[in-house]
Amino acid sequence: MLDTYKKNLLNRFLEYVKIDTQSDENSKNCPSTSKQINLAKRLEQELISLGLSNVRLNENCYLTANLPSNSKNDVPTVGFISHIDTSPDMSGKDVKPRIIENYNGEDIVLNKENNVILSFKEFPKLKKYIGQTLITTDGKTLLGADDKAGIAEIMTALEYLIDHPDIKHGQLRVGFTPDEEIGRGADLFDVKEFDADYAFTIDGGEVGELEYENFNAASAKVYFKGKNVHPGTAKGIMINSGLLAMEFNSMLPSHKIPEYTEGYEGFYHLIKMEGKVENSFLQYIIRDHDKLKFEVMKKELIRIVNYMNEKYGDNIITLELKDQYYNMKKKIESVFHIIELAKSAYLNSDIKPKIIPIRGGTDGARLSFMGLPTPNIFTGGHNFHGKYEYIPFNSMVKAVEVIINIIKLFNEQFKI
Questions:
Q1: What is the mean pLDDT of the segment spanning 352-380?
Q2: Residue 415 confidence class, pLDDT cut points 50, 70, 90
């Protein structure tokens, strides 16, 4: 890719991450935060300036656009999708990205005042990028490569295609969504209006990752009702809801938590706890790639609740269990040729494809079940959602190359 486009890619990314777009899981609105619209409006104007057609930004912060076909071949319409919001896990306000050129392999002091260090020992993947340019945080916020790197990569690929009409392609669709980080990115996505045969989310991790499997996911909220009396006269009367919550958690398998699992292994993850003697509350997420194991894990929660209600009586424990999304593998297997095409695009970019299961979720999973098969492609970033986040710039360049090569291969290999 020419230096001009590399410079544009870098400048786009550095500008996008400075716009605070953190989503809010406690909000019932869509978008969950109005500040997401600030980036969406900027992208809307940029898409128009690039020359895309049918650029639409709706009231819910879904932005779509179209790059018409310039090919004589009748090929499928392909979409590329990234999300606008950043994680609620850490502040995305006043992001000050740092550029580390020619990384020397030593620890990077992100923030001297607070002793925040991107340690080579703690993050050994840094060794892969010795000699490269890294973009990091200043140790006070997240960076926002998840998923502003994906947005910058899509925009730069579009710019390159528009400037090089000799690269033939079918109709391309672009989509930028709100609230992916809180699991709602696909809630109001209009698959019919998007009108693509296939799509790719540009929302993955390190260079080479290609993903078409993700967790089956559910959320669980467990409420514990206690009985509070003076502790001096509590014998035979008091029910401490906090102790009930502790007992409940102790009955879950101790090895099935994120800290002890990897690959295809599922887990229960306690993400919130509140409590006093009278009332307590636990919130979990449940994850497994295997649908049968996933169902067993949910049944185990129900079994424990029933057991404790029988033990203590009066239905003092209440469980709210809700499925969130499912493993997209079921929907991708029938169109596996798009995975083979993506693998070829990686190889054409001198990248060895690394097929891995997503230990999380993606808009693509829900979109696949909504009728739009949508596997996931890397952005190049590491350590998302926190102050240790970084991205090698060369990985971003490679992501742009992969997008362009996918588009080329669709025109060359698949004709309707």
A1: 93
A2: low
Domain spans, the chain = 3-213+327-413, 216-325
Q: Which two tokens stand for residue 178?
A: 């709100």
Segment 369-381 shows an average pLDDT of: 97
Q: Check pLDDT > 90 for residue 314.
A: no
Q: What is the pLDDT of residues 236-284, one digit of tens each?
A: 999 999 999 999 999 999 999 999 999 999 999 999 999 999 999 999 9
Q: What pLDDT band is residue 183 in, cutting at 50, 70 and 90?
A: confident
Q: Which token pair is 267?
A: 């887990």
Pick one of 3.40.630.10, 3.40.1350.10, 1.10.260.40, 3.30.70.20 as the CATH number of 3-213+327-413. Answer: 3.40.630.10
Per-chain mean pLDDT for the chain:
96
Q: Which two tokens stand for residue 248?
A: 């409940």
- The distance of Cα 131 from the centroid of its chain, to the nearest Å, equals 28
Q: How many CB atoms lie within 10 A of CB 137?
A: 26
Rounded Cα distance between 38 and 57, Å, is 11
Residue range 81-95, pLDDT digits in tens: 999 999 999 999 999
Residues with catalytic roles: 85, 180
Contact 137, 38 (CB under 8 A): no
Is the four-CA dihedral 2, 48, 58, 38 of positive or negative sign?
Answer: positive
Give this prediction's pTM. 0.90
The class level of CATH for 216-325 reads alpha beta
C-alpha 399/C-alpha 150 separation (Å) is: 8
